[in-house]
């Protein structure tokens, strides 16, 4: 069972995440110049953004592992997919942080985080369906 | 309970008002309607009908928020009578970078400062305060270690500005601080010549009790020869001048006796009105001698305060300082330095080895007659030194009787005009040394007569009536810092004929002496560098094959 929509979604997710990361970083820099952004509020925000990036890379790598396997064929193993789903939970939490608990939440932040959450939601649903196909 | 409540109240300021409907910046008068202030709650409809415009049309929060409340005030002038319209709306910021929410409480408002209480006062003071003065002289003692660096084996010495230490504290020179009342906490600094005047409150009843008006207070403690040593220098009494109630001063002969304040005939006598310290030091920074001269006075029952003056001066041992009048150019207001060439050195060769005898006695300087008395013969020789840059004129009236003879009168008048010892040379710079004879300008004496003498055979008596000293000076040195240099000094004596008077008659003639300083400096010519030239030359063998 090759899940083409899931594969496409992973690619879209990867590209969108790059855009999301750059946009959020640029907006944090903008906020630090325009508003009063003391260091002990700036540091956690930046740290969480980088942690989110690392988690995302890990997650997408695991997801592509599921799709390609070590031999380059499309193998179907549930372990990497399951791990990827678990990591997705972490990413969702971080995205919610950037949506609600950030120091300054701009309208643009709300928009890109909402899109990211929607993407994660869709991905999770498809992953669950894929895993369920094995079990 | 009440104390706890007040403590809570003082800890934080009043709560800030953030409701836009209740904020009104133009509401300045309490319980009264402000003109053209549409948001003022004290105004009623009748007041609004008299307004022309709204001075505050809109009250909003931070405009960077995505959605915020705004109160809009406007006047509807069409209606009769005009009425105020108040609208409370939600203002929306269309930008995509508007602040949707913020989790940082102080982001969009000014932080209220911490209220000082007895707990956090010291910490706030350390954070926000700058340098402060301490009124207690005891705190000085802690800094002496930093101020006096010692050598490896522990020898100390005084340096410029270091307070002079005595056995108990510091040598005090009372001076006015902030107001004109004396403060006894001013230490005398080493090599810092000071002169201060301050007021002290006294009364005849407390005559013996006020320490600061007694001589003992000023010579009691001995000065330490070097800081932190056990070698002490006692303060000796050099001279005592007693000033009477009407201001007349008398120098006392024996200055060994210590005179303490005491009550005599309803007056309190022996009150210290002035102290003058003279400290002698060596070039190793050690004090070897200290002397004090006192001026003692008396006060009566009505006196509530006296003015005390204090002075301290330092002299290096084995030197006799000659005050300079400028370094190198003369300073306006300082006396013109003059001197004599000692007898026996007439030859030019020996001029190089001759020394000019400089007199520090101010009456042997270049001086001019001081007009103290209208009658010349009663003038008693009062003279005032000539100060550089100050043109002076003085004079007196001479009453000539028939009995006066020519020659003695001429001599008397010359003495009067020129003084006992009129100098021969004047220093060209304020700091001219006596061994540089070329730095000194000779005084040229000129002589003129008021009336022309026609018949020399019958030469009538000529008496000097005026002395005019003209000092020509120039600006010397750089354009930005010119120094005054005396170039030429002429003393012009004008004589007049003394006609024989019939006996019994008297004649009064004015005698004048004046000093004029003339600036003969040529206008400055700035020196310019030569125009830059293009130094372009072809190399020697540029046209090699052809030339």
UniProtKB/TrEMBL annotation, chain A:
Signal peptide per UniProt: none
A single Gene Ontology biological process assigned to it is: non-motile cilium assembly
User: What is the membrane topology listed in the Swiss-Prot or TrEMBL record?
Assistant: Multi-pass membrane protein
Where's it found, cell-wise?
Cell projection, Cilium; Membrane
Q: Which domain of life is it from?
A: Eukaryota
Can the keyword Transmembrane helix be found in this entry's annotation? yes
Q: Does the keyword Glycoprotein apply?
A: no
Q: Which residue ranges does UniProt annotate as crossing the membrane? A: 9-30, 46-67, 79-104, 110-134
Q: Which InterPro entries match?
A: Uncharacterised_TM-17 (IPR019184)
Q: Name one GO cellular component term.
A: membrane
Keywords, sorted A to Z: Cell projection, Membrane, Transmembrane, Transmembrane helix
Q: Which Pfam families match?
A: Transmemb_17 (PF09799)
What protein name is recorded for this chain?
TMM80 protein
Report which gene this protein is encoded by. Tmem80
Automatic annotation (TrEMBL), chain B:
What's any one GO cellular component for it? MKS complex
**Tectonic-1-3 domain segment(s):** 157-317, 326-519
Keyword terms:
Cilium biogenesis/degradation, Glycoprotein, Signal
> What superkingdom does the record give?
Eukaryota
Q: What InterPro entries has UniProt attached to this entry?
A: TCTN1-3 (IPR040354), TCTN1-3_dom (IPR011677), TCTN1-3_N (IPR057724)
Query: What Pfam family is a match, any one?
Result: DUF1619_N
Annotated ranges, domain Tectonic-1-3 N-terminal: 16-121
Which family, according to UniProt? Belongs to the tectonic family.
Q: How does it assemble?
A: Part of the tectonic-like complex (also named B9 complex).
**Name of the featured protein:** TECT1 protein
């Amino acid at each position: 069972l090759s899940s083409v929509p899931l594969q496409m979604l992973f690619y879209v997710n990867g590209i969108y995440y790059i855009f999301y990361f750059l946009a959020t970083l640029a907006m944090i820099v903008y906020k630090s110049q325009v508003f009063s952004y003391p260091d002990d509020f700036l540091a956690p925000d930046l740290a969480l953004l980088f942690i989110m990036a690392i988690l995302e890379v890990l997650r997408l790598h695991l997801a592509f592992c599921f799709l390609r396997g070590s031999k380059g064929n499309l193998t179907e193993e549930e372990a990497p997919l399951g791990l990827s789903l678990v990591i997705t939970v972490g990413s969702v939490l971080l995205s919610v942080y950037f949506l609600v608990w950030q120091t300054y939440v701009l309208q643009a932040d709300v928009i890109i985080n909402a899109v990211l959450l929607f993407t994660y939601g869709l991905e999770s649903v498809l992953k669950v369906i894929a895993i369920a196909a094995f079990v | 309970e009440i104390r706890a409540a007040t403590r809570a109240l003082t800890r934080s300021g009043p709560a800030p008002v953030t409701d836009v409907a209740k904020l009104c910046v133009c509401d300045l008068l309490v319980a009264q309607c402000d003109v053209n202030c549409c948001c003022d709650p004290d105004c009623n409809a009748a007041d609004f009908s008299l307004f022309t415009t709204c001075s505050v049309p809109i009250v909003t929060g931070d405009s960077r928020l995505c959605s915020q409340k705004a109160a809009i005030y406007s006047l509807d002038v069409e209606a009769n009578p005009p009425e105020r319209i108040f609208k409370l709306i939600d203002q929306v910021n269309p930008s995509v970078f508007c602040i949707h929410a913020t989790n940082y409480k102080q982001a969009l408002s000014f932080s209220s400062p911490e209220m000082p209480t007895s707990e956090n006062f010291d910490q706030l003071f350390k954070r926000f305060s700058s340098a402060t003065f301490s009124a207690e002289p005891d705190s000085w003692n802690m800094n002496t270690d930093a101020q006096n660096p010692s050598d490896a084996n522990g020898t100390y010495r005084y340096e410029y500005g270091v307070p002079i230490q005595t056995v108990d504290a510091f040598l005090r020179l009372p001076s006015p601080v902030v107001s004109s009342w004396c403060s006894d906490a001013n230490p005398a600094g080493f090599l810092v010549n000071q002169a201060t005047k301050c007021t002290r409150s006294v009364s005849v009843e407390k005559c013996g009790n006020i320490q600061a008006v007694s001589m003992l207070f000023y010579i009691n403690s001995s000065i330490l020869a070097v800081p932190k040593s056990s070698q002490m220098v006692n303060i000796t009494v050099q001279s005592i001048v007693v000033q009477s109630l009407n201001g007349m001063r008398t120098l006392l002969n024996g200055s060994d006796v210590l005179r303490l304040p005491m009550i005599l005939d309803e007056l309190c006598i022996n009150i210290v009105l002035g102290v003058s310290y003279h400290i002698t030091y060596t070039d190793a920074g050690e004090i070897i001698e200290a002397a004090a001269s006192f001026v003692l006075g008396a006060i009566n029952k009505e006196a509530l305060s006296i003015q005390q003056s204090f002075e301290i001066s330092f002299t290096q041992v084995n030197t006799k300082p000659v005050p300079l009048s400028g370094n190198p150019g003369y300073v306006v207001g300082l006396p013109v330095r003059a001197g004599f060439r000692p007898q026996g050195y007439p030859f030019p060769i020996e001029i190089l080895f001759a020394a000019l005898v400089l007199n520090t006695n101010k009456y042997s300087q270049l001086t001019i007659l001081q007009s103290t008395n209208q009658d010349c013969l009663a003038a008693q020789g009062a003279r005032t030194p000539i100060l550089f840059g100050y043109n002076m004129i003085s004079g007196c009236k001479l009453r000539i009787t028939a009995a006066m003879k020519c020659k003695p009168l001429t001599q008397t008048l010359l003495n009067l005009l020129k003084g006992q010892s009129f100098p021969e040379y004047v220093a060209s710079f304020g700091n001219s040394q006596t061994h540089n004879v070329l730095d000194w300008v000779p005084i040229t004496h000129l002589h003129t007569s008021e009336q022309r003498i026609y018949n020399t055979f019958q030469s009538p008596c000529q008496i000097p009536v005026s002395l005019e000293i003209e000092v020509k000076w120039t600006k010397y040195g750089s354009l930005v810092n010119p120094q005054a240099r005396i170039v030429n000094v002429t003393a012009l004596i004008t004589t007049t004929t003394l006609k024989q008077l019939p006996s019994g008659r008297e004649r009064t003639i004015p005698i004048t002496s004046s000093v004029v300083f003339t600036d003969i400096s040529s206008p400055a010519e700035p020196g310019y560098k030569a125009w830059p030239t293009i130094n372009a030359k072809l190399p020697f063998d540029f046209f090699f094959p052809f030339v």
